[in-house]
Amino acid sequence: MTQDDVGDRLLVFKTPYLLGSSPEIGDIVIIDSRVNRTRTLKDDIFESPLIAMVMDADHVEEVNWVKRVVGMPGDEIEVKDGQLYRNGQPVEESYIKEKMNSDFEAVTVPEDTIFVLGDNRNHSSDSRVIGPVPIENVLGKVVLRFYPFNRMNVF
C-alpha cells in the first residue's frame, strides 16, 4: 500500500462549533453531506471516531466530507469561465488543483447555511451538488493535515 492508496489524515477541532462559533471564509471543515435531514444526538454519538471504529466506519466516511468554506449567509456565489466569484468579485484561490471546467449559476447563500467547495473542483461533490450546507451540519474545523508526510500542513 502506498501513500496514494490512503486518504489524508487530519486533526479536526469540533469544540469551536459546539460552543457556537461559525465557520469563516477559507476554513476547511468537515460537513455531514446529508443536508436534507436534521442531525440528531444519535448521529453525534454513532459517528464519533471511537464508536465509528467499532461500527460501520465506511458509512461515516461516505457522509462526512472535507470541504472549504467559500460562501457565508447572504453571499452570492457563482462560477463563470472557471473562475469563482463571491458577490461579483473574483476569488483568488491558489490552493485549487486546476481551473474549474464547468460553470455554476449564481446562488445566494441562505441564512444559517454556508457554501462549500472541494479544492479538487473538477472531481468534487460539494455545494454545487447538495446545495448550501446548514451550519448544524458543520462538524468541525480542520487544523492540521499530518499524513501523508510530504503534504503535512497547518490550517
From TrEMBL:
Residues 6-147 form the Peptidase S26 domain. Signal peptide: none annotated. Keywords: Hydrolase, Protease. It is found in: Cell membrane; Membrane. InterPro entries: LexA/Signal_pep-like_sf (IPR036286), Pept_S26A_signal_pept_1 (IPR000223), Pept_S26A_signal_pept_1_CS (IPR019758), Pept_S26A_signal_pept_1_Lys-AS (IPR019757), Peptidase_S26 (IPR019533). PROSITE patterns: SPASE_I_2 (PS00760), SPASE_I_3 (PS00761). Its main location: membrane. Its EC number is 3.4.21.89. It catalyses: Cleavage of hydrophobic, N-terminal signal or leader sequences from secreted and periplasmic proteins. The keyword Protease applies. Transmembrane segments: none annotated. It is a single-pass type II membrane protein. The keyword Signal does not apply. Belongs to the peptidase S26 family. This is Signal peptidase I.
